[in-house]
Design a protein that fits this description.
CATH class of the largest domain in chain A: Alpha Beta
Largest sheet of chain A: 11 strands, mixed
Oligomer: homodimer
Strand order of the largest sheet of chain A: 3-2-1-4-11-10-5-6-9-7-8
Chain lengths: 332, 332
């Protein structure tokens, strides 16, 4: 049995998305139970529409919820100990839940998760890992925005944490890990990336295979299982890829609706387009994972729908089932 | 009349691509003359196949050419004063040419361009600017890899140089300029980006409009005319976008060839697909531009074909015609 705690008030739509999302995830994983945290006036009427989910859930009323635009410091001041976000995280700390999923604002969630769960003993800083669709399947990219800048030791930590996540999610014994870099020779700076390469090589790790440097275009190719970078570059790479995918989808839509013959062609090829849309669907890989904390925290996109939130729960389910935290503790 | 000097030996294919590319560009711009630098044994037989181009060109034999894998320091040692790369740049310095185009290796080209042309008096560091296709047309993104890291003053320089390039290429009087950043509040680091924002605001510039911060997904949207960032992040964003575009093209190809009906649909919609391919064609926006030097240097992709090289010449032509260097000198 996997026990998942949910911040029902998180995200742009709160219970309207989180509860139907949980119901979908329950259909796929009947061995899940939920602990729900939220305002009962908003949550219980919706929960009542999903009797199967209700039967597998325990609900806790929380008066306070964290706003999507609240600054982390403000959220901590106002919502510590009492908000649905805090209490859903705390359930992992007390061992009542195996994993927590929230679509709430990233900064506040990270601040509360750090404060409540604490960083693992051997890890300097937590990271946010994204699951990146590639031509050869999926890769893990971290950090995509937990902190800005990272020294060589922190990049080494990211390599180990990303490796542990790849083992849990993709079931690869020794994931292939690359460091994101630029291909230009003899330019100054980014000494920490070069230094991290040396550290990883010299550590002689048996939990990962170190590939070396990768470049931006290796992300989509899926050259390695885990791509390591600091949070500023990682966040910009992630959003650039999302933006490019949307841009091309828009070009495609415009091209296909331009002439009658193109429209007819589109109708005939609709099955193929649906497969493509499915491949490109950002909801499919919804769920950033906070790594390096004493507990698993999954961040869903704030603007996602029930299908996307269910996908974030799926990620949490897989990670909890494969005992990521335990493995991380043991192997790092 | 615009006078363009070409490093005929640059790129993966050298004269086989550069000479046909120049011939194509000449068809589009009959007011161009060329100064060609290369090994005559390889160049002259090809040039002889393009009599129109030959009539508008002066050819100079150079025994030495810079290899695509040569390190900048090595290229400088071996090729300074004598290589086709150096001499094509020198033609801009001596005023014989308005602009130089090379498909040679980026590091060597930048090293030679800096050494030969020197950085402009008020500019600390040159930058490489890319022309980025967007949903609303094209934007300029810099730096995409000239140097790694940039302080606030250098980012301000990039804003001014990118603004001048947007004026020359897009003919916008006051280009809208944004600073690339991440959207997470209250995280440490990247103080230089925040500081650059303050500097630009306080400078009260009348040559650009300052938009504020943009994120990775604003690149494809075309939120601003000019996106400013340091070279590490810029290079990774550029390659990530290129990689994502190739990834989606591959998904599309696979989806369309999967069933007979999809193939039929593809045939009907072929015109639309061709338009899409045209939009996504990286050759169309081929040409990184070195900014901040006393002369215009255009870097074409090393692996491009004649059409792509002609597009790089087009960029050089537009920039020279709009007197970018002069404007830059006056306005910065």
């Amino acid at each position: 049995m996997i026990r998942i705690s949910l911040d029902v008030m998180g995200g742009d739509f709160g219970p309207e998305v989180v509860i139907p999302g949980a119901a979908k995830a329950l259909d796929r994983h009947p061995d899940v139970t939920f602990i729900l945290y939220g305002q009962q006036e908003r949550c219980l009427p919706i929960l009542a529409q999903y009797p199967k989910l209700q039967a597998k859930s325990v609900f806790h009323h929380c008066e306070v919820s964290v706003g999507m635009d609240e600054k982390p410091s403000q959220a901590l001041r106002r919502g510590r100990y009492i908000s649905s976000m805090w209490r859903s995280i705390e359930a992992v700390k007390t061992g009542q839940a195996d994993v927590v999923v929230s679509a709430g604002n990233t900064g506040a969630l990270m601040a509360m998760a750090k404060f409540c769960l604490r960083t693992m003993a051997t890890i300097e800083r937590p990271a946010i890992a994204a699951i990146w669709p590639t031509l050869s399947g999926e890769s893990i990219v971290l950090d995509v925005g937990a902190t800005i800048g990272a020294d060589a030791q922190q990049l080494l930590d990211f390599a180990l944490m990303g490796g542990a996540m790849a083992r849990a999610l993709f079931e690869i014994e020794r994931p292939l890990v690359g460091l994101l870099n630029v291909g230009v020779e003899e330019i100054k700076g980014q000494e920490e990336v070069k230094e991290a390469g040396r550290l990883i090589r010299e550590a002689g790790l048996d939990t990962i295979d170190y590939f070396g440097f990768v470049e931006g275009d290796d992300l989509g190719k899926g050259t390695v299982d885990v791509v390591v970078t600091e949070g500023f570059t990682g966040n910009i790479a992630l959003k650039t890829a999302e933006g490019t995918a949307r841009q091309i989808a828009e070009y495609l839509r415009a091209a296909m609706s331009r002439t009658l013959v193109a429209k007819l062609g589109y109708l005939l090829a609709k099955g193929a387009f649906d497969r493509l849309r499915d491949k490109m669907d950002p909801r499919k890989v919804n769920g950033g994972v906070f790594l390096g904390l004493n507990g698993i925290v999954i961040k869903s996109h704030g603007g996602t729908d029930a299908e996307g939130f269910a996908a974030a729960i799926d990620v949490g389910y897989d990670m909890a089932r494969n005992g990521l935290t335990q493995k991380n503790r043991k192997r790092i």
